[in-house]
Amino acid sequence: MGDEIRVPIDSDADIVIARQQGRALAERIGFSATDQTIIATAISEVARNIIKFAKRGEIILSTTMKNPERGVVVVARDQGPGIVDIQLALQDGYSTGNGLGMGLPGCKRLMDELEIKSSKGKGTIVTMKKWTT
Questions:
Q1: What is the rounded distance in angstroms from the CA atom of residue 20 to the CA atom of residue 37?
Q2: Residue 82: which residues within 8 A CB-CB, separation 6 or more?
Q3: Measured CA angle at 20 (ends 92, 127), to 5 deg
Q4: Is-above-0.90 flag for pTM?
Q5: What is the residue range of 58's domain?
């Protein structure tokens, strides 16, 4: 439906840029202010994971359609160590990085769709979608 916006992630400043770009994209296609914040929060979580576990990666933002709904697609991609157990990583409270373990489970709650593909030693791709209601 729309153009792709690619934001390289390798510093905290890049997380801010990715959040801003995601919020602006969501606003352009008609998401409420609340949903814009939800999308920005989910982007922050996956971008922080990129920095924490892979050191660098990218966030790819785009729009999609599922008549009559419009959606935002957020893809977080890195070439880090990968996620060994995706199901475990999606459980509340599970963390390998001394965090609260809210990142991926929080994203799953915030967004309408979440898919994770990961290979040990080859990286992770997290795809999230949020639909207008």
A1: 10
A2: 118, 119, 120, 121, 122, 123, 124
A3: 45
A4: yes
A5: 5-131
Q: In sequence order, which residues have a C-beta less than 8 Å from that of residue 78 and are 6 or more positions away?
A: 9, 50, 53, 54, 56, 57, 58, 123, 124
pLDDT digits (tens, 9 = 90+) for 4-42: 999 999 999 999 999 999 999 999 999 999 999 999 999
Q: Pairing between strand 5-9 and 57-66? A: antiparallel
Q: Are 74 and 128 in contact (CB under 8 A)?
A: yes
CATH code, domain carrying 101: 3.30.565.10
CA distances to 22, 44, 78, 91, 113 from 105, in Å: 20, 13, 19, 6, 12
Quickly tell me which residue has 């959040």 as its tokens. 19
Rounded CA Rg of the chain: 14
Domain count, the chain: 1
Cβ distance 75 to 126 under 8 Å? yes
| 5-19, 40-54, 55-69, 93-107, range with the lowest pLDDT | 93-107
| Structure token digits, residue 63 | 């729009």
